[in-house]
Amino acid sequence: GDGERRAKAERMFSLMDGFLKNDPFSLQKDILNHVEYTVARSRFNFDDFEAYQALSHSVRDRLIERWHDTHSYFKRTKPKRLYFLSLEFLMGRSLSNSVINLGIQDQYAEALSQLGFEFEVLAEQEGDAALGNGGLARLSACQMDSLATLDYPAWGYGLRYEYGLFRQVIVEGFQHEQPDYWLNFGNPWEIERIHVTYEVKFYGTVEEADLNGEKHQVWVPGETVEAVAYDNPIPGYGTRNTLNLRLWAAKPSNRFDLEAYNTGDYINSVVNRQRAETISNVLYPDDRNHQGKELRLKQQYFFVSASLQDIIRRFKEAHNNFDELPDKVALHLNDTHPSLSIAEIMRILVDEEHLGWNKAWDIACKVFSFTTHTVVAEGLEKIPVDLLGSLLPRHLQILYEINFNFMEELKKKIGLDYNRLSRMSIVEEGAVKNIRMANLSIVGSHIVNGVSKLHLDTLKRTTFKDFYELWPEKFQFKTNGVTQRRWIVVSNPSLCALISKWLGTEAWIRNADLLTGLRDHVDNPNFHQEWKMVKKVNKMRLAEYIEAMSGVKVSLDAMFDVQVKRIHEYKRQLLNILGIIHRYDCLKNMDKNDRRKVVPRVCIIGGKAAPGYEIAKKIIKLCHSVAEKINNDTDIGDLLKLVFIPDYNVSVAELVIPGADLSQHLSTAGHEASGTGSMKFLMNGCLLLATADGSTVEIIEEIGSDNLFLFGAKVQEVAELREKISTLKVPLQFARVLRMVRDGYFGYKDYFKSLCDTVEIGKDFYLLGSDFGSYLEAQAAADKAFVEPEKWIKMSILSVSGSGRFSSDRTIQEYAERTWKIDPSRCPL
Ligand code: CR6
């Protein structure tokens, strides 16, 4: 009975000694316990890595406590929940972030130093969790941090890839990819839930069956794989709330298949079974092209099916009527990658729960929302109908039915405009028939989001014009943001301390709008002095790293000029390199006197190229070739250095961004949906040199065009320039530096030819030539500002004070209020 249960619970609680204590002494005891019993090393003899492991386990214990409390609180209070579905999360390291969000950073530092360890040194032992490609994936990670911090009742769902994004190794200037088997050394941040498993099915046929006299479609699958849950606690800052990021791993199904084992070929049956695990093995390393690969589609459906089974199970535990689903559940599609969810939920509601089609469709449309991170139509995901039909035959039928109904509805509204109907159709007709995942996502969601104002404007005018005209009320934008917890507090402790000192509060860590308060001190010389010191400390840290990585010694007096992001033609790293060649060329032709007036520069470039993206790989090689020439030119010395930082990832970003004076964001206007790197630099007091693209437009609104270096054609001009692409005028300097590369001045003449061809007059789609003049002017303006330290520091302060709007807290609050309709639900202390 009840009494018995209560007695048992009380005994349990007393046995467990209440909650874990966070004073340094208790922390030390916990760490040593983990050394001894978890890591199984002797407390008298363990190294830094083992100390890191034990430390992480002690942090994990504390996370689990809060995780339990949060989830039992949600279970009790039943708020509407958000489920954030994303195939990619770029979490980076967890230790520092967790300890800071738990608010026990100082206690841990003290506990460790008494044990003879340094927190920062142990934190360096951790590898990155790199389960994503670039901006989109890091955005998901920032947004999880904000969801937790703002107390929203949310879950993240993703895939637990065994191989994260490849490691970039540079050999003689060329990129090589190495597998990132990140689980090699164990992962203390995840909790394996061996009992939370679901069967995911593939292939097979659809058969017709009779159910109470009605005809029903029944999927008879051909293959079954098991999904196992791995939970990753996401602690909020300044709250007990700790959310869950549930990642699925594929395992062979435990279903006992008598047939397979009776054939006598035992070994082969086991090997076949084992193939199931390949589904979640490896992350696709391409951030733009996901075109119709079977394994990729399998990953998507595996993810969708496991997540939805889990979500529906949780819903059914607390509710007995699907009418309530839209009031209790919001499902967010992070890009089109999880958009099979729309077909899957229809299959569950219609085939398994036996709801009528129209009712099920009505529920689905209310539950889903969608964010697109792509600008151009060519970047949108498509899946060949044949592939989908063989892997998921029932889903293909459902997709056809969704499309049929949509087309009928559309005809009533727009008549028989066949061109428009075919553009809007979910099924693309042609030699190869495709399912257009973006069209599916728009049709099946009640809100469609862009990631910046300009992005949405562009979508309305171009890619999604037809849909916008049909459903203008569906379209919104939520400008991206990044979390100041990771991008200031974790990565730049000196700046964090300085901000808190001058604002007189740490409240900005939860409310970044307060950063505007720094404007009050913008002319204070003491503040300037301290600001300068902070930058210097971070530049020193970066300079040491550069020397260790590349052997290049750099001067701290130089301007540290950084461009770090995925390598893409539209991001125009080539423009940067050509600009550097121009600078070098000018220096070579200058007399001694003039050289004395030159601002010394350390140009830093970093980023990965997708393994099959040849031009991007050539850009990396060119960077190395130019660097070799310049860095070994004793005549130039400290006036110009170029370094490529290999294997750019989240933890490298944490080191590079705080140390930058200037950062470059050079995308041809209209191509970067948002860009989020710029926001991290802004938060770290680094000035931007940028085109008016993506969210930069809003950064300009916020900090004023005087406080950054703007250049290049605007979006409207880009279209016009492209019209006359074969007659575009390019500056002489551009032709000259290009010629230097072509003529083999940096070696590898033949290899660089096809790269040079991409920017030749008439072919220069990304308009490097026509933007070159304006780019050089912006660079000159940056040089000029740098020699007036007062002015520069002021711009830097104004950058940070205007960065509050680009906190992911603001983004998430907008999503919560305008799209998901969820309320904060704060777990009591
Ligand atoms: N590559 C956009 O290109 C945006 C992020 C996050 C991107 C980038 O401008 O900031 O998403 N798009 O919204 C995709 O990944 C498809 C990106 O990271």
UniProtKB/TrEMBL annotation:
EC number assigned by the record: 2.4.1.1
Catalytic activity: [(1->4)-alpha-D-glucosyl](n) + phosphate = [(1->4)-alpha-D-glucosyl](n-1) + alpha-D-glucose 1-phosphate
Gene Ontology terms, MF aspect: glycogen phosphorylase activity; pyridoxal phosphate binding
GO biological process: glycogen catabolic process
EC class name: transferase
Keywords from the named record: Allosteric enzyme, Carbohydrate metabolism, Glycosyltransferase, Pyridoxal phosphate, Transferase
A GO cellular-component term linked to this record: cytoplasm
Positions of post-translational N6-(pyridoxal phosphate)lysine modification: 680
Cofactor: pyridoxal 5'-phosphate
Protein family: Belongs to the glycogen phosphorylase family.
Role noted for this protein: Allosteric enzyme that catalyzes the rate-limiting step in glycogen catabolism, the phosphorolytic cleavage of glycogen to produce glucose-1-phosphate, and plays a central role in maintaining cellular and organismal glucose homeostasis.
Protein name: Alpha-1,4 glucan phosphorylase
Portion held of the full protein: 170 to 998 of 998
